[in-house]
Amino acid sequence: MLKVSLPVDKGNAAIKDGSLVTKIQSILADLKPEAAYFTEFDGKRTGLIFFDMTDTSEIPAVAEPWFLAFDASVEIKAVMNRDDLAKSRPGIERAVESFG
After folding, report:
1. CB distance 5 to 44 below 8 Å
2. Which candidate, 45, 53, 42, 97, places its Cα nearest to that of 79?
3. Measured between alpha carbons, how far is 41 from 78 in angstroms, rounded to an integer?
4. Which superkingdom, per the lineage (predicted)?
């Protein structure tokens, strides 16, 4: 999961010059997310973007467009979908046996 927060001044400037939506659409077209949601978080325009990252070497390609286009703060978190959670059961059971 990618959490992107735009500084208010950069977001305002992009809205005023008409580039906000175009830039976001361009970045998302390259990222090809499973889902993207936009909201306010801590007083900033924020996107919560769910995408499939198969290798950590992809981090720069994911983060740099946001840094360069908006001076955004970027957080990348590993998340599981329902299928991933089901596959995790043996690992959870081993942890319970060892540490529970």
Report:
1. yes
2. 53
3. 19
4. Bacteria
Q: What is the pLDDT of residues 63-96, one digit of tens each?
A: 999 999 999 999 999 999 999 999 999 999 999 9
The answer to whether the CB of 4 falls within 8 A of the CB of 73 is yes
Class of domain 2-99: alpha beta
Flag whether the pTM goes above 0.85.
yes
Instruction: Output the pLDDT for position 15.
Output: 98
Instruction: Tell me the CA distances in angstroms from 7 to 26, 32, 60, 72, one per residue in order.
Output: 19, 24, 20, 6
Q: How far apart are CA 58 and CA 61, in angstroms?
A: 5
